[in-house]
SDR family NAD(P)-dependent oxidoreductase
Amino acid sequence: MSSVRGKVAVVTGAGSGIGRQLAFELAKRGARLALSDVDELGLGQTADRAKALGAEVHTARLDVSDRAAVVAYADAVAAHFGVVHQVYNNAGISGGGRSVLDTDWETYDRTLGVNLHGVINGTKAFLPHLIASGDGHVVNVSSLNGFMAQPTLSAYCASKFAVRGFTEVLRTEMIAGGHPVRVTVVHPGGVRTNIASATVAEARAQGLELSPAELARNRVYNEKLLTMPAEQAARIVVDGVEAGKPRVRVGKDAVLVDRLVRLLPARYPVLSAWYDRKLFGRA
Ligand SMILES: NC(=O)c1ccc[n+]([C@@H]2O[C@H](COP(=O)([O-])OP(=O)(O)OC[C@H]3O[C@@H](n4cnc5c(N)ncnc54)[C@H](O)[C@@H]3O)[C@@H](O)[C@H]2O)c1
């Protein structure tokens, strides 16, 4: 029996990439949807297609890093549908591209604000509603960078390692407390989305000049690492949710990296640095 059909599912960051495809996949499987994003144009396009797929859709502009807004949003979604079953805390940014030495303080605040606090906000705000539903599910999107460190991604890795820790604690608490809420942490590998290009667009919007090396790095990322279609990634995530998996790795790269890090926990940064140099050249 489907754990999605007829359920109310919340998806953050639904205006693009994995979040958009999660909305479509959930719509196809019969969910009712609460979709949000800071990008209202992208969100509108997702909502139109999800409705065309037959879903009932509620949309709202929501910045997941704005705690008060997320709390008010959770109450608004619960009031709209009368119940909330699933929340996909998906919205995220890369915050990457520079070494720890060169990353400014603001990038750490913004990246942790969206990727970590956004997930904490969405989880805590919706948790009472999920428990009240009697059949809840929290799905938090981490990354393969939730178990593997990679040069120039310190803010991103810090946020995604923390999402994993936060989500696994939540799972222990739901089990210990006997609450009717399943918990899944998702570790995607490279998925073809706007995430890397959005970093460049945001830097330009802030009037920042990116060096040719940074632009080249971004291009290689898009061409060589972000390869799985987002549609396929979303299918793997929702299959994992329907199967009640506590942990979903998306893609062979995520599975391989997971094994490598567990095999060589102290040595893998040497390999990670070597691979980075091979792929992107010397910094
Ligand atoms: N693409 C990959 O290879 C990959 C790999 C691992 C993990 N992920 C994770 O998957 C999730 C989705 O990313 P994606 O690849 O689809 O990227 P994307 O850039 O295509 O989509 C991210 C969406 O989040 C929205 N967003 C950004 N900041 C927001 C905020 N403060 N509040 C609300 N919405 C906000 C954006 O507007 C965008 O629509 C992220 O958490 C990302 O870290 C992606």
